[in-house]
């Protein structure tokens, strides 16, 4: 019989790629993780891992077992939600991670409404890709993130869509009206760091306009991006709720923002109320 607790260890390894990183995510020692994996291989009756130095990869049997582990985890989340609903679950705390402008847009307005229903939010500022990791690791209950960052291990609830605007230095020749992205092909650019999903949006939009942006400066802080642009360091594309700029001519790049929860946990009474309030405030 396979111990479902060991499936959680295998999932963490698949998510993080090394025993050390999986151990950190699970708050275990690397030796404890290794022992659990050895025991799981014995229970499964198949080799699950291919070891290459510090990193490991999954065998076909390991990949198959991880897929089943996702299903088991969702059912356990659903079972816990059902038990909590049975116990009424009328008050408690829900941990939420969101990027800065989403905190302003939806999370902060939800605080008062939820407090009236005896639900406290624990809010953590995290970019979309980071909040997804936190949700996978069980450190938060709800992630406010970009839709394309989510996986089939999450249930998604659409919140809002916002366009990207062009941010230009003072006195720039294109200030004052909608801007064609093609007109910015020869400019220096200020963009977010690699791994930030917003950088992917910017690079894709520029590619569709027929050029690769000449990146000179990077920051994940939109106040810093705005300051760099204002100082003449380059131009930028930024979500409208983060930095107010000039509309893009034609079809603007969009950020679709969702609330994501681990599949199965959407029926938890507290999480369900939080999702309802976030939706109502749109």
UniProtKB/TrEMBL annotation:
InterPro entries, per the entry: LysR_HTH_N, LysR_subst-bd, WH-like_DNA-bd_sf, WH_DNA-bd_sf
Keyword field contains Disulfide bond: no
UniProt key word Transcription: yes
Pfam families: HTH_1, LysR_substrate
Chain ranges of the HTH lysR-type domain: 2-59
Keywords associated with the record: DNA-binding, Transcription, Transcription regulation
Family named by the database record: Belongs to the LysR transcriptional regulatory family.
Protein name, entry field: LysR family transcriptional regulator
């Amino acid at each position: 019989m396979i111990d479902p607790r060991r499936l959680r260890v295998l999932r963490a390894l698949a998510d993080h790629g090394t025993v050390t990183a999986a151990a950190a995510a699970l708050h275990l020692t690397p030796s404890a993780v290794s022992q659990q994996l050895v025991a799981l291989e014995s229970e499964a009756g198949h080799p699950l891992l291919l070891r290459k130095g510090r990193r490991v990869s999954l065998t076909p049997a390991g990949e198959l077992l991880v897929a089943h582990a996702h299903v088991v985890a969702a059912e356990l989340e659903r079972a816990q939600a059902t038990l909590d609903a049975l116990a009424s679950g009328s008050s408690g705390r829900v941990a939420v991670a969101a990027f800065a402008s989403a905190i302003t847009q939806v999370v902060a307005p939800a605080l008062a409404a939820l407090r009236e229903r005896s639900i406290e939010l624990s809010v953590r500022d995290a970019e979309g890709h980071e909040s997804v990791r936190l949700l996978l690791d069980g450190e938060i209950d709800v992630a406010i993130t970009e839709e394309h960052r989510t996986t089939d291990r999450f249930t998604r609830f659409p919140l809002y869509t916002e366009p990207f605007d062009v941010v230009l230095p003072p006195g720039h020749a294109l200030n004052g009206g909608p801007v064609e992205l093609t007109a910015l092909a020869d400019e220096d650019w200020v963009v977010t760091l690699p791994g930030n999903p917003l950088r992917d949006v910017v690079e894709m939009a520029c590619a569709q306009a027929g050029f690769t942006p000449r990146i000179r400066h990077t920051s994940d802080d939109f106040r810093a991006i705005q300051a760099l642009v204002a100082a003449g360091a380059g131009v930028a594309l930024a979500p409208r709720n983060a930095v107010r700029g000039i509309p893009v001519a034609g079809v603007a790049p969009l950020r679709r923002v969702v609330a994501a929860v681990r599949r199965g946990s959407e029926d938890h009474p507290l999480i369900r109320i939080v999702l309802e309030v976030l939706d109502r405030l749109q």
